[in-house]
Amino acid sequence: MADYESAQRAPLRLKGSGAAPALGKRKKKKAAKDKSKILEQIVSSKKQEEEKKRALDKRTPAQLAYEKMQEKRDFNRHLDALTEHYDIPKVSWTK
């Protein structure tokens, strides 16, 4: 045991870390209240944005449905006008 009396009994210090960390001090984690407040703010802001969008849009549900179907029809007409680029071209290797 006499050989170990000169050994250091404090925690080891790493280079560049400054002083040794205090044993009794730890960072406190954010409380669940803070997280719940943040979530409530996010949800409320999303609801407010949706309400603003609805307030600006004065169309009835029937008008919205009609316009949605018109967009689908126009898109289908556009696709019909395009060439069929997904078809495999006929290639004859024997000729």
Low confidence ranges? none
Using the alpha-carbon principal axes, give the shape. Answer: elongated
Overall pLDDT metric = 80
Quote the beta fraction.
Answer: under 5%
**Radius of gyration from the alpha-carbon trace, in angstroms:** 35 Å
Protein name: AF4/FMR2 family member 3
GO cellular component, one term: nucleolus
Family: Belongs to the FAM32 family.
Pfam families: FAM32A
Characterise the protein shown here.
The chain is an all-alpha fold and 95 residues long. It has a domain at 26-83. The chain is 48% helix and 0% strand. The protein has helices at 32-56, 61-81. The longest helix is centred in the middle third of the chain and has 25 residues, at 32-56. The radius of gyration is 35 Å and the shape is elongated.
Question: How would you concisely characterize the structure shown here?
Answer:
By secondary structure, this protein is mainly α.
Keywords:
AF4/FMR2 family member 3; 2 helices; mainly alpha; 95 residues; 48% helix; FAM32A
